[in-house]
Amino acid sequence: TPRLILVLGDQLSPELSALAEADKSRDVVVMAEVADEASYVPHHPKKIAFLFAAMRKFAAQLRDDGWRVEYTRLDDAQNTGSIPGELLRHAEGIGAKEVLATEPGEFRLIAALEECPIPVHQFPDTRFLASHGEFEEWAEGRKDLRMEWFYREMRRKTGLLMDGDKPEGGKWNYDHDNRKPAPDKITFGGPMQFTSDDTVEEVLDLVERRFDNNFGELRPFWFATDRGQARQALSHFIRNALPDFGDFQDAMLAENRFLYHSVISMYLNAGLLTWQEICDAAADAYAKGDAPLNAVEGFIRQIIGWREYMRGIYFREGPDYTRKNWLNHQRKLPGFYWDAQTDMLCVAKAVEQTRDEAYAHHIQRLMVTGNFALLAGIDPHQVHEWYLAVYADAYEWVEAPNVIGMSQFADGGIVGSKPYVSGGNYINKMSNYCKSCRYDVAVKTGEGGCPFNYLYWGFLHRHRDRFGKNPRMAQMYRTWSRMSDDKRQATLDSAERFLQRMSQGDRV
Ligand code: FAD
Ligand code: DLZ
Ligand code: SF4
Fold it and tell me: Name one GO molecular function term (predicted).
């Protein structure tokens, strides 16, 4: 009897474990566009269109390779609306008694497959460098799970940028060189853009009809939607942007949404690219002298370090991780995360580009929208749901540890040793937002002062019992203590007034 082989929207890889376990001559691949997956958060229309188009093209490729594929379109009359529903429907139709799947990247769906009335065997997702077991082994018995130590093991394991058992150039990490402020001129024209083919156009029409009310602009749509295009986008980045990636990794510019970033996370996370080919291409550019070590090391660290580490944390921490709220933050996510109606130019720009591109780079996510939510005491679960919805690369396995852990410190310090908070100074140093902002970054309190400034001290003050003894924050608490009583009071009053106005819906 045939078995069903489930391929999910972010599992578009020919080397997928479920396919490797299957028998082309008797098994049937099931792929389905379903309402449940498309609406468990209000995904950005670009994210949905990207996945549906890439799914349709991947299905066509599997058929070319000789697989039998049962593909459900969102609009199909028989569509049951869920992954388990589609598995059951096809099992009945075909007479299959079991399903082979690759473990999904969200506990929500893992549980749904476990509860499915027909047996579903979930095989490990071998598209990652570290298996769950390997991460557990690494984490076992450690006092703290710092990414840097994990990263060094991954360098040794892959041999990437290794000189025997020593790191290339003598140091493991060249981040010190990677903190240059925004340059005056960007030489990179941005990620490679693709014109729509018939498959993409059809999907765009569908998404326009069905998800018109979701946050985010569907058009212009220019993402790669198959492996060949994604590889072109990768080569384009390696050739034209990688050399400057390191230097300006943390910079932000009001007029440039991509700087020297790769904009490949959505391709990598959906399975159109592999970590190996990306890292090999970068290491190769270094070996040929086309890109400097600080850029290549920094880039590779994001992928074999941060990305793998985040996944390890998600699967180690379990399904309750997204409910963590160590700082007990309860404020509602303000409306300007959806409509960009705020005078804080840095926030408005990050939200506008998120709406237009389903993309923001790391420092915008961490030090603008993330930093603000943390300073303002927003409920981290609401922050989590926002990030999960609005970015084309967002799946819980990578989004949750970045948001709940790294950005909101809601896990109490599993991912980070101190919260990523900063006043306006940091944003001013790394960007050109402040010079066109209604708020004055140099002013610390009062109506015209930059909200990041007083909210920062308000945050430290509010959580003194939690962070006061953290050696990495001692300096800041000393500065706070040294301020005059009047100044401290004015700062806290400004923060309080701002948060009140924000929460009652006034424009801030
Ligand atoms: P580049 O800057 O060019 O980096 C190269 C690659 O490294 C990325 O494509 C990505 O695969 C990987 N990478 C870099 N940083 C991280 C990281 N912290 N965690 C995991 N992978 C990383 N990344 C996601 O893929 N999905 C998410 O949902 C997501 N949510 C985030 C939420 C917050 C609050 C923060 C602070 C970061 C989040 N990130 C997420 C990580 C990072 O911001 C994005 O991977 C990156 O901005 C993608 O753009 P890029 O491809 O141009 O990356
Ligand atoms: C994100 C997403 C969306 C929007 N739609 C689908 C879909 O219709 N069918 C599908 O198989 N997968 C979709 N996905 C991706 C899944 O949500 C993803 O596989 C899980 O969240 C696990 O990472
Ligand atoms: Fe953002 Fe403050 Fe700068 Fe305005 S002044 S752009 S609010 S950091």
Answer: lyase activity
211 occurs within a structural domain: no
Q: What is the mean pLDDT of each run of 10 residues along the chain (508 residues)?
A: 97 98 98 98 98 98 98 98 98 97 98 98 98 97 93 98 96 90 90 98 98 97 98 98 94 94 98 98 98 97 98 98 98 98 98 98 97 98 98 98 98 95 97 97 97 98 96 95 97 98 97
CATH of the domain at 463: 1.10.579.10
365 CB within 6 A, ligand 1:
yes
Which of ligand 1's atoms lies nearest the C-alpha of 369? Answer: 34
Cα–Cα distance measured from residue 13 to residue 27, given in angstroms and rounded to the nearest whole number:
17
**Cβ–ligand 1 contact at 302 (below 6 Å):** yes
Per residue in 167-217, pLDDT (tens digit) is 999 999 998 888 898 888 899 999 999 999 999 999 999 999 999 999 999
ipTM score for this prediction = 0.99
Given 123, 156, 182, the domain boundary residue is 123
Using alpha carbons, select from 280, 361, 278, 312 the residue that is nearest to residue 149. 312
Listed in order, strand segments (DSSP E) in 37-184 are 68-72, 99-102, 120-123, 162-163, 166-167
Tell which atom from ligand 1 comes closest to the C-alpha of 264: 51
Range of the domain at 50: 4-123
My answer on whether 26 and 81 are in the same domain is yes
Give the distance (Å) from ligand 2 centre to CA of residue 105.
9
Q: What is the pTM of this model?
A: 0.98
Distance CA 175, CA 153 (A): 18
- Please tell me if the CB atom of residue 403 comes closer than 6 angstroms to any atom of ligand 1: yes
Q: How far apart are CA 57 and CA 7, in angstroms?
A: 13
Residue 342 lies in a domain: yes
Domain count of the chain?
3
Q: Residue 490 belongs to what H/E stretch?
A: helix 485-503
